[in-house]
């Protein structure tokens, strides 16, 4: 068996493992090991003198096949490991691109490495130089596909718009015998993805409104989130007064409890590492507890008790809650969370349909970077939005809002102070019905370390739970009356509109690698992949 055949068969095996991935089958470590084996095989062959002589005799197709295999293996391995070693992932993406660029008469293999390099440079940018690199890579990807990028004086033809990424990039990792039509579709999908990233980067830039409109119009969009929404530095008016669906408090936790919570949810903490947070296999996950709480003698229940009593003072209906659900996020500066509802599907005695929490909350544990939370007046029942509120992240701030509101997390609008900065948030939702999440493990759980950390004893529990009358901070909640900008008529007012309409550019989610292999649903609160959003995305 020759080198190309052996390597291709091993690569296809890795792709099959990804396609069939479940927690009960081979783990990501097994797939990673197989890809490392392929790289070692290719590297040892290229360094062997006799093999070099043999390769000089290869025909052009075989040589291109080896370059393609090597490039795609670097790329897939980078996508697999980025969540735990993003520095090495960048090196793998760079090697993938360098090899793909050597393939004669075929630019298509270089498209996806260009996209990943652009996305990576955007996600981890700490200076303007990295943002410029992101633009260069994304622009190059679009050029390779054959679609010109917009400039201040170009008149490019409109191209198709895609709101979502491909389900999995493993389909592009086929051998030289793959169907050419499928490969062409994958290349154009990567090109559309590059246009989406570039459009977002331009929209987040404070000096590119005209170019942003031109770019989005060429992608067939009609509207976008207005600059006053996207950019934290943009002015907003009319602080909330009478509206009761949103509230905010500063200094919600004592310094002691805040410090303990921050330790529980460090980016390097067992909670994130043991869940393989941000890995391609990690979908949405959360945990529940029954109310009233059996005890408030640990870190987690102390925080929940504190939040529950505070929110009840603003939203009395939250007193009806019989369940609490919680989860946590640790995001880079340029990572957001797309517009979504918090809900579950239920076919219980109450009938089928969506059910929402009584109230959803966000505790900002670390807030050195990242953008605001946007809460809109749109619900599933009214289907339209006229205005919204945004709350900037601030350490030890609590945000609450009615659980049926359409909301999102916006990416940061300025450069972060450092690449180590994170926006760490603890989400707590209060339900009148069982939210369907797994029960929160007890401290005695032996299979994982994280339950013992978050359920560690906390000796200030009683005192923490007794102060639920802190003044509400109206100044933290800023009303935004112009949520949407008409791309052709930016000065005009846009009436009530469905923010989930395909004609609105709202691509501001997390900038994770293009590889997604989890099948757990992507919206929120354990729909199990049954909602329309998940069916379209998965």
Automatic annotation (TrEMBL):
<feature type="compositionally biased region" description="Low complexity">
    <location>
        <begin position="151"/>
        <end position="161"/>
    </location>
</feature>
<protein>
    <submittedName>
        <fullName>Uncharacterized protein</fullName>
    </submittedName>
</protein>
<feature type="compositionally biased region" description="Basic and acidic residues">
    <location>
        <begin position="162"/>
        <end position="172"/>
    </location>
</feature>
<feature type="region of interest" description="Disordered">
    <location>
        <begin position="144"/>
        <end position="185"/>
    </location>
</feature>
